[in-house]
Amino acid sequence: MVQKFQSAVRVYKYPFELVMMAYERRFPKCPQMPIVLDCEVMEDEETEGGARRETKRRCKLAVDAPYLFKKLIGLDFVFFIQHNSLDMKARTLNIEATNETFASRIEIFERCRYYAHPENPSWTCFDQSATLDIKNFFGFEHSMEKMGMKQYTQTTLKGKEIIEYFINQLKEEGITHVPRWTSVDADDSDTVNPDTINLQTSGPSLKKEDSASLDDEYISKNLGEMTPLQESKLVELEAMLKEKNEYQTPDHQMICRFLRARDFNVEKSYQMLQDSLKWRQENDIDRILQLYKPPTVVTKHFPGGWHHRDRDGRPLYVLRLGHMDVKGLLKSIGEEGLLRLTLHICEEGLQLMRDATKELEKPVSNWCLLVDLEGLSMRHLWRPGVKALLNIIETVEKNYPETMGRVLIVRAPRVFPILWTLISTFIDENTRSKFLFYGGQNCLHPDDGLERYLPSEIIPDFLGGPSATGFPTNGFGMISTNFYTRCYTLSCNCTLIHEGGLVPKSSYRTAGLESGGSGEEVTLHPHHDMYKAVDLKANQFFELVIKNDDPKSVLTWDFDVLNVDVYFTVFRTMETIIQTGDLYSSVFDGVNLEEGKTYFKEEPTLLCRHRESVQGSHVMTTAGTYILQWTCSPSTEKVAHLMYHYEILSSANYKGSMTSLQSGFSALSVASSCQSR
Question: 122-143, pLDDT tens digit by residue?
Answer without folding.
Answer: 889 888 888 888 776 555 555 5
